[in-house]
Amino acid sequence: MEKELVNLLEAYVTDHKVQLINDVLDQRTRHITVMLEDLYHAHNISAVIRTCDCFGVQDLYIAQRLHDYEVNPNIVRGASKWVNLEKYIRSEESPARCIKDLKKKGYRIVGTTPDRNSASVHELGISKKTALVFGTELRGLSDYAKEEADELVHIPMYGFTESFNVSVSAALILNELVTRLKASDVDWRLSEDEKRELKLAWYQRIVKRSDIHIKNYLSQSERKPL
Question: What CATH number does residue 82 fall under?
């Protein structure tokens, strides 16, 4: 049925948009994902959403302990329509639940830190599914996140400043890993089923009255004789 609904809505999408969506889906990945732990500046989260879209990272996990988050449309520039946001209800347990879920999905947890005693991001292997965890703006990762991380990495720096802004850090690390991933023989692309599922979700967001088109199609299908 999913395939039929994709074909139904595709009739209302321009050929140019269809090709663009196909091209974007071909570059999407879930081999790398991003988790944000209790960021309190909404514009930083919005900037990371935009960064994930630009680098083809499909999923972003947002686990807030103390701060609520709403999408800032001026910064996201529509990227939130194309990136799956997995938001955890604000609570003390949200980061723990998020990390547990990521591990169940087979992700290696890689915490990011300014600590130069950790490994350089340039040394981080890319063969395993990887969840990059970024901590709050002032204090970085919580002690819990550090303890649960399989590895800790830093971005080499050569000035007096201790760390980059979190959204800049995300962009630099994703650029490094995605570039290496695309040049590797790692199977990083989405499956055909995942592409079709996303295509349906995206078509529903861009086709006007898509819900009505789907409802009518399903109603007609039910009336067809067996």
Answer: 3.40.1280.10
